[in-house]
What we know:
Layout: E1 17-21, E2 24-25, E3 34-44, E4 55-69, H1 74-80, E5 85-88, E6 95-98, E7 112-118, E8 130-137, E9 153-160, E10 168-170
Amino acid sequence: MAASSNNQAxxxxxxxxxxxxxxxxxxxxxxxxxxxVATETHEVQVDQAGQTPINEYIMGRTVTVKAPLAETTxxxxxxxxxGAKLVTDGTSQAKRVDVALGVGVSLLDSAKTLTLHPVALPxxxxxxxxxxxxxxxxxxxxxxxxxxxxxxxxxxxxxYPNEDNLLFAFGDPLAGV
Length: 177
Protein backbone atom coordinates (compact mmCIF):
# COMPACT_ATOMS: atom_id res chain seq x y z
CA MET A 1 0.00 0.00 0.00
CA ALA A 2 1.50 3.33 -1.07
CA ALA A 3 1.72 6.15 1.45
CA SER A 4 -0.53 9.09 0.72
CA SER A 5 1.00 12.53 0.25
CA ASN A 6 -0.16 13.42 3.76
CA ASN A 7 1.70 10.54 5.41
CA GLN A 8 5.31 11.56 4.96
CA ALA A 9 7.84 11.90 7.75
CA UNK A 10 9.44 14.88 6.00
CA UNK A 11 6.22 16.82 6.61
CA UNK A 12 6.68 16.57 10.40
CA UNK A 13 8.64 19.67 11.45
CA UNK A 14 10.67 20.19 14.58
CA UNK A 15 12.93 22.92 15.71
CA UNK A 16 13.34 26.45 16.88
CA UNK A 17 13.17 29.70 14.96
CA UNK A 18 14.90 33.02 14.66
CA UNK A 19 12.76 36.03 15.59
CA UNK A 20 13.23 38.97 13.23
CA UNK A 21 11.49 42.26 13.99
CA UNK A 22 11.74 44.79 11.18
CA UNK A 23 14.51 42.60 9.73
CA UNK A 24 16.58 42.70 12.94
CA UNK A 25 17.31 39.36 14.62
CA UNK A 26 16.29 39.65 18.29
CA UNK A 27 18.70 36.84 19.22
CA UNK A 28 18.38 33.72 21.32
CA UNK A 29 15.08 32.66 22.85
CA UNK A 30 14.46 30.39 25.81
CA UNK A 31 11.34 28.31 26.30
CA UNK A 32 10.09 28.27 22.71
CA UNK A 33 8.33 30.81 20.53
CA UNK A 34 4.56 30.31 20.38
CA UNK A 35 2.12 31.43 17.70
CA UNK A 36 -1.58 31.68 18.43
CA VAL A 37 -4.26 32.39 15.83
CA ALA A 38 -7.83 32.86 17.07
CA THR A 39 -10.97 33.29 15.01
CA GLU A 40 -14.11 34.85 16.47
CA THR A 41 -17.39 33.73 14.90
CA HIS A 42 -21.09 34.47 15.17
CA GLU A 43 -23.55 31.59 14.97
CA VAL A 44 -26.80 32.36 13.17
CA GLN A 45 -29.83 30.92 14.93
CA VAL A 46 -33.52 31.06 14.10
CA ASP A 47 -36.53 30.06 16.17
CA GLN A 48 -37.49 27.27 13.78
CA ALA A 49 -34.15 25.45 14.29
CA GLY A 50 -34.12 25.77 18.07
CA GLN A 51 -30.59 25.94 19.45
CA THR A 52 -29.06 24.51 16.26
CA PRO A 53 -27.04 27.08 14.31
CA ILE A 54 -28.02 27.29 10.64
CA ASN A 55 -24.90 29.21 9.58
CA GLU A 56 -21.80 30.82 11.04
CA TYR A 57 -19.84 33.94 10.09
CA ILE A 58 -16.28 34.97 10.85
CA MET A 59 -16.35 38.21 12.83
CA GLY A 60 -12.61 38.67 13.24
CA ARG A 61 -9.25 36.99 13.54
CA THR A 62 -6.25 37.68 15.75
CA VAL A 63 -2.64 36.53 15.79
CA THR A 64 -0.22 36.72 18.70
CA VAL A 65 3.38 35.61 18.97
CA LYS A 66 4.98 34.98 22.35
CA ALA A 67 8.75 35.22 22.20
CA PRO A 68 10.85 34.73 25.35
CA LEU A 69 13.95 36.73 24.42
CA ALA A 70 17.09 35.49 26.16
CA GLU A 71 19.38 38.23 24.84
CA THR A 72 18.32 40.94 27.25
CA THR A 73 20.25 43.79 25.64
CA UNK A 74 19.38 47.45 25.87
CA UNK A 75 18.88 47.48 22.08
CA UNK A 76 16.33 44.65 22.32
CA UNK A 77 14.54 46.48 25.11
CA UNK A 78 14.20 49.56 22.89
CA UNK A 79 12.97 47.39 19.99
CA UNK A 80 10.16 45.82 22.04
CA UNK A 81 9.13 48.81 24.17
CA UNK A 82 7.15 51.46 22.28
CA GLY A 83 8.34 54.93 23.19
CA ALA A 84 11.62 53.72 24.72
CA LYS A 85 14.79 55.62 23.85
CA LEU A 86 18.39 54.53 24.04
CA VAL A 87 20.47 57.24 25.70
CA THR A 88 24.22 57.11 25.18
CA ASP A 89 27.15 59.11 26.44
CA GLY A 90 29.57 59.54 23.56
CA THR A 91 32.64 59.82 25.78
CA SER A 92 32.22 57.12 28.44
CA GLN A 93 30.21 54.55 26.44
CA ALA A 94 27.58 54.62 29.17
CA LYS A 95 24.10 53.63 27.98
CA ARG A 96 20.63 53.38 29.42
CA VAL A 97 17.06 53.01 28.20
CA ASP A 98 14.52 55.65 29.16
CA VAL A 99 10.90 54.50 29.08
CA ALA A 100 8.10 57.08 29.10
CA LEU A 101 4.55 56.47 30.30
CA GLY A 102 3.35 55.82 26.77
CA VAL A 103 -0.19 57.09 27.31
CA GLY A 104 -1.82 57.57 23.92
CA VAL A 105 0.97 55.86 21.94
CA SER A 106 -0.49 54.07 18.92
CA LEU A 107 0.79 50.51 18.64
CA LEU A 108 -0.12 50.48 14.97
CA ASP A 109 2.29 53.38 14.42
CA SER A 110 5.12 51.27 15.84
CA ALA A 111 4.06 48.03 14.11
CA LYS A 112 6.68 46.36 11.94
CA THR A 113 7.08 43.07 10.13
CA LEU A 114 7.69 40.12 12.44
CA THR A 115 9.19 37.02 10.84
CA LEU A 116 9.76 33.62 12.41
CA HIS A 117 12.36 31.71 10.38
CA PRO A 118 13.22 28.07 11.24
CA VAL A 119 16.93 27.81 12.12
CA ALA A 120 17.15 24.44 10.33
CA LEU A 121 16.60 26.18 6.98
CA PRO A 122 19.16 28.27 5.12
CA UNK A 123 18.50 32.00 5.36
CA UNK A 124 17.53 32.13 1.67
CA UNK A 125 14.89 29.39 2.08
CA UNK A 126 11.72 31.24 3.12
CA UNK A 127 9.39 28.29 2.44
CA UNK A 128 8.45 27.89 6.12
CA UNK A 129 8.62 31.50 7.29
CA UNK A 130 5.74 32.74 9.42
CA UNK A 131 5.27 36.47 8.77
CA UNK A 132 3.05 38.88 10.65
CA UNK A 133 2.83 41.88 8.34
CA UNK A 134 2.25 44.47 11.07
CA UNK A 135 3.20 43.35 14.55
CA UNK A 136 3.66 45.38 17.69
CA UNK A 137 4.18 44.73 21.34
CA UNK A 138 2.71 46.91 24.05
CA UNK A 139 5.96 46.60 25.93
CA UNK A 140 4.85 44.50 28.87
CA UNK A 141 7.90 42.84 30.39
CA UNK A 142 8.28 40.00 32.79
CA UNK A 143 11.76 38.96 33.84
CA UNK A 144 13.53 37.88 36.98
CA UNK A 145 17.00 38.05 38.42
CA UNK A 146 17.63 34.47 39.58
CA UNK A 147 20.73 32.62 40.67
CA UNK A 148 19.97 29.50 38.65
CA UNK A 149 18.16 30.80 35.57
CA UNK A 150 18.68 33.09 32.62
CA UNK A 151 17.05 36.51 32.54
CA UNK A 152 14.41 36.46 29.78
CA UNK A 153 12.27 39.25 28.31
CA UNK A 154 8.90 37.55 27.85
CA UNK A 155 7.51 39.48 24.93
CA UNK A 156 4.09 39.20 23.26
CA UNK A 157 3.56 40.58 19.77
CA UNK A 158 0.08 41.25 18.41
CA UNK A 159 -0.72 41.37 14.70
CA TYR A 160 -2.70 44.07 12.89
CA PRO A 161 -3.98 43.96 9.29
CA ASN A 162 -1.83 45.64 6.65
CA GLU A 163 -3.04 47.89 3.81
CA ASP A 164 -4.28 44.80 1.92
CA ASN A 165 -6.17 43.51 5.00
CA LEU A 166 -3.67 40.67 5.38
CA LEU A 167 -2.86 39.62 8.92
CA PHE A 168 -0.15 36.99 8.43
CA ALA A 169 1.31 34.54 5.92
CA PHE A 170 3.02 31.19 6.12
CA GLY A 171 5.61 30.42 3.45
CA ASP A 172 7.72 32.40 1.02
CA PRO A 173 6.65 36.07 0.94
CA LEU A 174 7.78 36.30 -2.70
CA ALA A 175 5.33 33.63 -3.89
CA GLY A 176 2.89 35.09 -6.41
CA VAL A 177 4.83 38.33 -6.78
